[in-house]
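Justification of resources, computational component.

The compute hours requested in this renewal are based largely on the per-chain cost of generating structure records like the one below. Each record pairs the submitted sequence with a full structure-token output. That output is archived, and it is also reused by downstream analysis tasks.
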Amino acid sequence: MNMALLLHAAARRLPDAPALALGARTVSTYRELSARVAALAAGLRRRGLASGDRVGLAMKNCPEYYEILFACWHAGLAAVPINAKLHPKEFAYVVQDSGAQLSFVTPGLEAAVPGGVSIASAEFRRLRAGDPIPPAETGADELAWLFYTSGTTGVPKGAMLTHRNVLFATLAYFADIDRLGPGDSILHAAPMSHGSGFYGIPHLAAGALNVIPESGGFEPDEIFALIAAHGGVSFFAAPTMVVRLMASPAAGRADLANLRTIIYGGAPMYVADAGRAIDLFGPRLYQLYGQGESPMTITGLPAADHAARRNLESCGFARTGVEVRVADDEDRSLPPGEVGEILTRSECVMAGYWHNQEASARALRGGWLHTGDVGSLDAAGYLTIRDRSKDMIISGGSNIYPREIEEVLLRHPAVAECSVVGRPHPEWGEEVVAFVVRRGAVGAQELDALCLEHIARFKRPREYRFVDSLPKNNYGKVLKTELRRMP
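The structure output for this chain reads:
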């Protein structure tokens, strides 16, 4: 099963339908995109790349992204999407570790990825100029996408995603999130090297439109304008992006008639923020929980739950065809309500980590992906994430889950963002510290009273650190490792 066949099938059905847009302007129909993919695939083969070779995509969001991604698959190659915001040393690590035979870069990244082919270069034009070739015969279990983890706990690892994994995630999108077709669109405000690019695939399979903002990234005013300009608009966003949209002055005057779905994930959405998002956008929200090792596809909280404002503290229930359980340290399943590690099993789970058998065996032991996340299931199957296991605080022998404290702090209208970490304590082992970004006047005494009103005394922060911003990685996740190092 070659994933490129989905694009070509859509092109046969809907040759004149718009496939790619830059801002409000269509830049490619399905007929044109399909032809470019087949021609570029031929160019890659002429370049000497063989089946199974890896190709790096060190690219900002742009229309050429999908041309290159699908050309890799058409030629029987594996794509290695790389976040464009990485440091040159991080680019070098991913390219070297993956063994990429060739890398494509967007203008401005040529120096960061030496030897990369710029999409603005004559060389790229030559690669696209040849006669097309037919799609490669590709097995379902062959490598399609080598996804490198964000590396917040060490060097990044390459999760091996097969054509079977990508197809399963695509079908799960149709089953659980939206039935798509011509006239619908997805807006790529988040990096296409991550979840946004992954969710463009079902849109291309359905003959819908992929829209890349002219800014190439996330600008609230531009996002609201593009929602008004296109039909049936969905987009993937990290919770921090949703919060920024709500805070934008443009939010109050935005035309949201064309908005279909905001799919948010990558980190938990706090209940207070979810409530504000429902107030602004309506129940057109879908929360997903996934990892690079099971991309975008573990659990989901659908629009119906958002409309009823129920289970907002959870990340929903198992996606179609996905098994989820919570287990103890011996991998024994725990009953509803008990907290343990979240495990999942499905056709979306990676084949393993690239050239890392030890990490693969550890993560996939017993046939289940061990997520490293801590959570609990209720009797109805709704999963609530407590924290990453590494973020759990143990104080005086008691487990303290930072998210529980963060949820309470965010109830205060003057708290814009917060993050809770543990720091060493000579007697208790660890104690709780809260880093708080204010949007109004509030002090430690007031926040302490709020915590004492809602959670046990031993869980409340022993110190409140007021900061201008929280450190985040390229995908919007708060870097608690950096907070722990702050003096």
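The chain has two domains: 4-384, 392-485. The chain has a mean pLDDT of 92.
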